[in-house]
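User: Here's a protein and a ligand (6-O-phosphono-beta-D-fructofuranose). What would the complex look like?
Assistant: Let me lay out the input and then the predicted complex.
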Amino acid sequence: MKKIAVITSGGDCPGMNAAIRAVVRVALAQGVEVWGIRNGYAGMIAGDMTILDSRSVGDIIQKGGTFLGTARSEEFKTLNGRQKAVANLEARGIEGLIVIGGDGSLTGARLLGELGIKIVGLPGTIDNDIWGTDYTIGFDTAVNTVLDAINKLRDTASAHGRVMLVEVMGRNCGWIALTAGLAGGAEIILIPEQPFSQEDICKQLLESRAKGKQYSIVVVAEGAGSGIDLGQYIRSRTGLETRVSVLGHIQRGGAPTVSDRLLASRLAETAVTALLDGKTDVMIGYRNNQCVEIAIADAVGNKKEIDRELYRLAEVLSQ
Ligand code: F6P
């Protein structure tokens, strides 16, 4: 294989740039030409791509976002759109593609693979919701951003004796809430994987006041419900003063942490090696401190479960 391309797709995440940089430099070291596709699958359909050299990926390892740009494409969901995309790769002699993105992007990659192009995926999303990998690129940075917010909210929560609710991202999964909540010492962590009753939460908050707690931090995963609605409910049922912070897209930005830069670089190197070895339709994940190959079909076809032990520990530590 003499020419490959790299693309970032779907929601951006910190560490995507580190992954692109590693793809380019590892491939160039093997004498392989690398093309960068701009703005996700939409750019692939439009033929918006350029050759990347070593210098073009300089000064990006420390930056969040993706310098290639990203997008969500409706046209790519059609066979016609995907055929146009593949034709654009073939016209340039590109035989292999590395896709960096989340669940939707990897599902798209699988469909592209059916059209004959060789594909290796990298899990890039803050949500950490991809089956087959312990961590996704961007997750560590996002949870550190949430942790920083919780630390700051503690200061003002304690000053006023308030119940501080923090709504975090994660789509339909609770990894961000659980991990940042445990590390931030939250009293209550609400995740979509664990049913809860609002009434019980009110009871728990009143009990903790009776036990001597002066204030409370409640982390709410967006998939578990609205932090704003819950804040209003708690206030009306308990009389406790509540404030809500919806962290939103702040969680998607910022300089990637050491962990995310290392993860991105290691996964990317393994991805290039796999592609050049003729592998296709696989995602490179990270399990038990090793880079591993997983069929993309399995990565997108299975639901990643929450770590129940972590959840149990968070509950014990919140007493
Ligand atoms: O998948 C990453 C993510 O940030 C989710 O946590 C969130 O639900 C979603 O993307 C937001 O998407 P958008 O940036 O399109 O609003």
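Summary: The chain has two domains: 3-138+256-301, 140-252.
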